[in-house]
Amino acid sequence: MAQLFYRRFGDKTYEVRAAGASLRLYTNGAFHSQWHPNRVFQGAVWDCLTLPALLLNNPPQSALILGVGGGTACHQLQRIAPLSRSVGIDCDSEHLAIAQRFFNLRYPGLDLLCEDAVRYVERDRTFYGYLIDDLFLDGPEDPLRPDLNEEIWLKLLSSRLADSGVLVQNRLEVAKAKAFFRQHRAFFSATFDRVLLLSAQHYSNGILAAFRGPQARLSPEVLFSEGLKQRGISTQGLKRIKATWLQ
Question: What is the mean pLDDT of the chain?
C-alpha cells in the first residue's frame, strides 16, 4: 500500500496508507480505521458497530460516536441512517484532522470534537438514537479499554439514550463481551429489550448492541441484508459477520 501521510508527534506516529480508493489509518503501527467509499461494508469490525442500526423499526436520527479514529463508523451511519445530528468525539486531535483531510469526514450536522469522552458524556444532556462506545487506548501490544468503572460508565451511557435508542460497545474480545454481559445481566435485562453480540472474521473484537424497544424476531443477518439492499449497498461483506442474540 502506498504511504500518503506519515507524522511523528511526541511519542506517537500516524500513518495513512492507500490501495486504490481504500484508505487505512495506523497509529503507533496499530490498524485503526479502513474506508472505501464504494465498499461501505467489507465484513470488518467497524461493520459490527453500525449494522445494528438496520434492526431498528425507525432509523436513528441522531448519533454519538465515542472514538472516531479515521471515521469509518461515522461514514457508515451516514450511509444507512437519516442523521440530522451526529457528534464524533476523539481525544486525539490528529485523528480528527486526518479523518477530515484524508477520509473526507465532512457531513452536514456532524460535529467533530477533540475532548475527553467521559467528561463530554457527563456534561452532555442530549438523548441520542444511536450511541457507539469505541474507546480504547494504545497498549504495549494490543489495544486496551480505558481504565473506567465499567458499571458506572454503562449506566451513564444508557442514560443518554433516547427511548428507542441503541447502545453499541466494542469490548475488544468476544469472550470479554460475553463475560461483561453475564456480569451485568440484571442491568441489561432491566434497561434493554434485547442485546446482540456481533463479531467479524479475522478480528478478535466482540461488539455488544443493546436495544431499547421491541425488535423484529427475524435473523439479524437477514435484516442486515435487506437493509443494505434497500439502500443500494453491497451485502458481500455480510458473510464475514456473525450476530447472536444474548437477550
Answer: 94
Tell which residue, 76, 177, 67, has the closest CA to residue 132: 67
Within 10 angstroms of residue 125's Cβ, the number of other Cβ atoms is: 7
Rg (Cα) of the chain, in Å, rounded? 17
For the segment 24-83, what is each residue's pLDDT rounded down to a tens digit? 999 988 888 999 999 999 999 999 999 999 999 889 999 999 999 999 999 999 999 989
The answer to whether position 29 is within a domain reads: no
Q: How far are the Cα atoms of 27, 48, 162, 195, 198 from residue 220, in angstroms, in the given order?
A: 33, 11, 22, 12, 10
Domain containing residue 188: CATH number = 3.40.50.150
Beta strands 241-245 and 194-200 are antiparallel
Could you list the residue range(s) of the whole structural domain that residue 138 is in?
A: 40-245
pTM of the model: 0.95
Does residue 141 carry a pLDDT above 60?
no
DSSP string covering 25-37: EEETTEEEEEE-T
